[in-house]
Design brief:
The complex is a heterodimer of chains A (65) and B (712). With 65 residues, chain A is an alpha+beta fold. Chain A has one helix at 17-24; strands at 2-4, 7-9, 32-35, 38-41, 55-59. The chains are: A alpha+beta (65), B alpha+beta (712).
């Protein structure tokens, strides 16, 4: 399982961040997610896999400065 | 403790006024030339027009200087203010001070916001703003004692030069066993040897038993402080409670403060983790999006950047509460405990380092080609203790390094220092030279604009290429975001009143990453609303971070998520609860618009503030060199073909650089037109008569300045 903002999603081998976001189905254009302590940005969503049992945070905006 | 020799130059007993709905209703003026102390009333008109904070600073500065005043003239006023909401202990981020003065690097108006306890302690001692004029040839300390209701101008011999040592000693000296009651403003030896000095504002951290420091960094305000002969300004105040600021509706204030504070506690761990890693979370994100300046803004990405990301600083930062104001739940002022510098006067000794924040990591790290987190911590420590702005230090060294690598300068100019990118020992040596006022470091410490002058006139370097790669505008060094691919952020930097600092508008993500601002009109609207909204925090004594570095769970469903409207409404309630007014969110924007336009006219009074002064170096807009173009040729080729319909087949990279440059420079000029129109300014970037009348800032001397610049 993977936990995303309090909701459970089933996990599969090789599941990428992009795969997970498609399952989450939130249309908001997230630029960044955090998997435990690790930040992953959109350019890497298709390449980074989500470990089993992860807690994933969807970062809504990056405010900067 | 060092043995101090203290001599009273002036002491004035005063009756501390009762704070009324966020205001002390008076300001304090200290003239160092004759140790004269004056207390001036704050009028209703002043509050209605300028609100407080930066607004009061600018009003005082306007009257202190004339159009011929230079930064090192005695009449240049260094002004520090809190604001009507400043000093509220429940609401996150309510302890900021705003510092303003004429800048040594820009010659025009500078403002810089900073945490620490000084602003609130100043206000609760009875003063909405402090104005320092004149100069002293003695080591002078101004002591504002709100507890004993006494103001003193003191000559104190025996104080050390470094900011950490000064803050520690004066906290103990004036604290009378209660160090928490003291806040010290100081700079360091680098400030008097360079033009990029910063101010350190202290607060006492009881858990760690030490004075902690935050910096008012930009534009050489610390250099103004040092030039006036000041060693420190010290404020003393006692217990702070919600009632201390006399809110008009304490229950309403507590209610809205609790909402925001609890939301921070709930959402920050799920979002940016500011309470754990501060702004260090931005490093890898900026790198991922090609926005982290590396090698003097040549590129925005480097494979070693993750070495300096939040995963590293999470381990380096000392755990514990790090709020720079009482009760701030965002508490992002982290530090490194027991750090042992390898160079300089503190080599081999354990020190506490306040920071680093993102800007220092990027400026003193990636932008000079260094990706070692401990090097950044050491640069951070010495910037603070020498009283130097770590952003200007980083951007200035980066420029010198690129000039060195281009062969524009060489070791005969640098005193034998190899200034290749990535040379950490050279970077540290330059910093120590700035602290000592020696060698090539002293030249670098003049900032990028003056280095261009010196390198061309004295070293024979090519001026035109330095104009392209020297990352300054209006004389201020760029802060650490790569604006090349975001036209809106180019405007955010180029059209900022004081120069390229991101605190007016940080639109890179909205524009480039989210593509929420596709048209000129949308960019212009963003460059109207965001600078005004961000200005409002500086009028009120607030930190902007709780506004949009933590967002409500339902924010993404709102029409304009970037504005975080729910928080804007909370801030409106906060303002009304303290002041007793009945403002709307739109009224808050108008409050800022008055001050923003007044600042533009003050720039004009000082000989700046026109279209020509909103220029950018081309490095901020696009690839200067073939090397830069070819490193991202797919992006640039695509833009030329698809956005501009340029036939590029058969064209060399050098030709494409030239074509792209022309197009991007035209686009920036179009953006200026759109923004000036939205702001109610002329094509030359000057507020129109209608604008100043609408805003109620049509004072006779404002109209005189406009008339002298062709606006009537």
């Amino acid at each position: 399982m993977v936990l995303v903002e309090g909701r459970h999603f089933s996990w599969r081998e090789g599941m990428t961040v992009a795969d997970l976001l498609r399952e989450v189905g939130d249309p908001y254009p997230y630029a960044v997610v955090r998997i435990h302590d690790r930040v992953v940005s959109r350019p890497d969503f298709e390449n980074v896999t989500v470990p089993r049992g992860s807690e994933v945070y969807l970062i809504p905006l990056i405010a900067g400065g | 403790m060092a043995e101090l020799k203290v001599k009273e130059l002036k002491t004035l007993k005063y009756e501390r006024p009762t704070i009324q709905r966020g205001y002390a209703n008076q300001t304090l003026c200290v003239n160092l030339s004759d140790a004269n102390i004056t207390i001036k009333p704050v009028t209703d008109r002043m509050k209605e027009t300028f609100t407080g904070g930066k607004g009061f600073d600018l009003w005082l500065l306007w009257h202190a200087v004339n159009g011929r005043t230079r930064w090192n003239d005695p009449e240049n006023a260094l002004c520090i203010a809190s604001g009507p909401l400043g000093g509220t202990p429940l609401y996150p981020g309510s302890g900021k001070s705003i510092v303003s003065a004429l800048s040594p690097t820009t010659g025009s108006v500078m403002d810089s916001n900073v945490g620490g306890h000084f602003g609130p302690y100043l206000k609760f001692s009875g003063f909405d703003a402090l104005e320092i004029q004149g100069k002293s040839d003695k080591p002078t300390v101004v002591f504002i004692d709100g507890v004993s209701q006494e103001l003193q101008v003191l000559e104190i011999a025996g104080l050390p030069d470094g900011a950490h040592a000064i803050s520690e000693i004066l906290t103990n000296y004036f604290g009378q066993g209660k160090p928490r009651n003291i806040s010290v403003v100081s700079t360091g030896p680098g400030a008097k040897h360079t033009l990029i000095g910063c101010l350190n504002f202290s607060w006492y951290d009881p858990k760690r038993g030490r004075a902690r420091l935050k910096q008012a960094g930009r534009g050489g305000i610390g250099t103004v402080f040092a030039d006036k002969g000041l060693k420190a300004i010290v404020a003393r105040w006692d217990t702070v409670a919600v009632a201390t600021n006399d809110p008009a509706d304490e229950a309403a204030l507590k209610q809205v403060a609790k909402l925001h504070s609890q939301e921070v506690v709930e959402m920050d761990p799920k979002q940016n983790e500011m309470a754990t890693v501060g702004t260090a979370h931005l490093v890898t994100i900026m790198n991922d999006y090609d926005l982290l300046p590396t090698h003097n803004f040549k590129y925005g990405q480097h494979p070693q950047a993750p070495n300096m990301g939040m995963e590293i600083y999470r381990r380096l930062f000392d755990k514990g509460f790090d709020g720079c104001w009482v009760g701030c739940t965002l508490s992002c002022s982290h530090g490194v405990k027991d750090f042992v510098p390898t160079t300089g006067p503190y080599a081999g000794k354990k020190v506490f380092v306040d920071g680093p924040e993102y800007e220092t990591i990027a400026g003193c790290g990636s932008n000079i080609g260094i990706f070692d987190p401990l090097h950044v911590v050491e640069m951070n420590f010495y910037c603070d203790t020498y009283g130097l702005d770590s952003i200007s230090v980083g951007t200035s060294i980066a420029f010198a390094m690129e000039c060195f690598e281009m062969g524009l300068i060489n070791e005969s100019h640098t005193g034998g220092i190899d200034l290749s990118f990535g040379n950490r020992w050279s970077a540290l040596e330059l910093l120590h030279q700035m602290g000592r006022g020696e060698g090539f470091g002293k030249i670098v410490g003049q900032g990028v604009r003056r280095m261009k002058e010196i390198f061309s006139k004295e070293f024979g370097a090519d001026r035109s290429i330095m104009e392209d790669i020297g990352m300054e505008a209006k004389g201020l060094e760029f802060s650490e975001y790569m604006p090349k691919e975001s036209l809106a952020q180019q405007g955010g930097y180029g059209l900022a009143l004081k120069g390229p600092q991101h605190d007016e508008a940080w639109l890179i993500f909205l524009d480039m990453v989210h593509n929420f601002l596709p048209t000129f009109e949308q960019k212009a609207e963003a460059l109207h609303w965001f600078p005004l909204w961000r200005t409002w925090f500086g009028l009120c004594g607030l930190c902007k971070l709780p506004w949009n570095d933590v967002t409500p769970p339902d924010n993404k469903q709102t029409k304009e998520p970037a504005k975080v409207i729910k928080h804007v409404e909370w801030y409106t309630q906060y303002f009304n609860a303290v002041t007793g007014h009945s403002m709307t969110p739109a009224d808050l924007i108008t409050m800022s618009e008055r001050v923003y336009n007044f600042q533009r006219v003050l720039c004009l009074k000082m000989g700046y503030g026109r279209r020509e002064h909103d220029a950018l170096p081309y490095r901020a807009m696009g690839p200067v060199t073939v090397e830069e173009y070819e490193s991202r040729h797919e992006r640039y080729d695509k833009q030329l073909k698809e956005t501009y319909n340029v036939e590029i087949d058969g064209k060399s990279s050098a030709e494409k650089v030239k074509i792209l440059r022309k197009l991007r420079e035209e686009r920036y000029e179009q953006l200026k037109d759109a923004v000036y129109e939205r702001r109610g300014w002329t094509k030359d970037g000057i507020p129109t008569l209608d604008t100043v009348k609408r805003l109620g800032i049509d004072f006779p001397d404002v109209l005189d300045v406009l008339r002298a610049n062709g606006v009537s």
